[in-house]
Design goal:
Layout lengths: L1 H30 L6 H4 L16 E6 L5 E7 L8 E5 L10 H10 L2 E5 L18 H14 L8 E6 L1 H10 L5 E7 L5 H13 L4 H15 L8 H4 L7 E6 L8 H9 L4 E6 L7 H20 L3
Parallel strand pairs: 3-4, 3-5, 5-6, 6-7, 7-8
Antiparallel strand pairs: 1-2, 2-4
Helix pairs in contact: 1-7, 4-5, 6-7
Length: about 300
Amino acid sequence: MSLLLDLLILLLLFAVNASFTILILGPLLLLQPVRRTKEWYARFTTILEPKDAGLPQESLLLETNDGLKLSCWLVVREGKSKGTVVYMHGVGDCKIGGIALTRFFYRMGFNVFLYDSRQHGESEGRYCTYGYYEKHDVSMVIDYLKARKDFRAGKIGLFGTSMGAAVALQAAAIDNRIAVVIAEASFTNLRTIFVDYQRRIIKLPWHFLRNFALTRSQRIANFKARLVSPIEDVERIHIPLLFVHGTNDTFINSSYSLMLYERAHEPKTLLMVKGGDHNDVWDVGGSDYETTLRDFLEKNLGG
C-alpha cells in the first residue's frame, strides 16, 4: 500500500510540474524562443555575413507597420538579375542560417534579401506569433524592394524553412506580388504544432493544457492562434509552390508537407528527402535537392 501511495504521489507531482511548465512557462517558450545570434554561429563558422562568403552586401534596418526595426541584408547581383529571393529562417534562428543558400541563389542569377524575423536575431520585438504579424512584415519587405530605384527587384520569390515556410505560405495568401514559394518543413497550423511540441518536451498529449497555454499566449501577444493556419492559406494561393521535407524530421512531422501539398492548387511540386531530419535536408538531399530547386526557380521565377 505504501509503495502504491508513493507512486500515486510521484505521478501527481509529475502532473503538477508538467502542468505548471505548460501553463506558466509554455506561453513564454512559445512567444519568446531562444535567439540564435552571431555569437552562437561563431562557435561553428567564420561565415557570419554574406560578405564573408564573397558576396556583395548591404546591411539595413526596416521598420514594420507597428514600429519594430528588423535587421536585414540585401545581396544585389551586378547587372541584370533574374528576380529576387527572400530568405525566411526558422524559429529561434536568424538570417545567418541562410548565407549558404544565398550563395546558391546568387550564383543562379538572383538578388537575395535576408532578414531576422521579429523577436529573432538582431531584430526588435517581444513576441513571435508564427505568422500572425510576421506575414505583414513580408509585405513590408516587398514594398521596400519594389521602391528601390538603384536596382530592379523583378519577380519576388520566398524561400522559407520551418517557421519561415509557414510564414511564407501565410504571406502568399494575402500578397499577390509574391510569384513563388518554396516551403521547407512547414507546419500545418499553430495549434497542431504546439501539441507536438508539448508531447516531445513534456511527454503529455493533453489538449486542454494546450488550449489554456494558447489562450494565455494570445492574450499576452494580442493575436489569434487559430488564424495561424498554412493548411487553410494554401487553398487561397494560386502560384507555383514547392514543398520540401525530410522523411525523418524529428521536429515537424513530414506528413504535414504531404497534407499541405494535397490541399494546394496546381502548379505544385513535392520533394520528400529520404532520411532527412529537420536541419539537414539540404545536406542529405544533395544534388537531387539542388536540381529540384534550380529547375523550380528557373521555370517559375527566373524565366
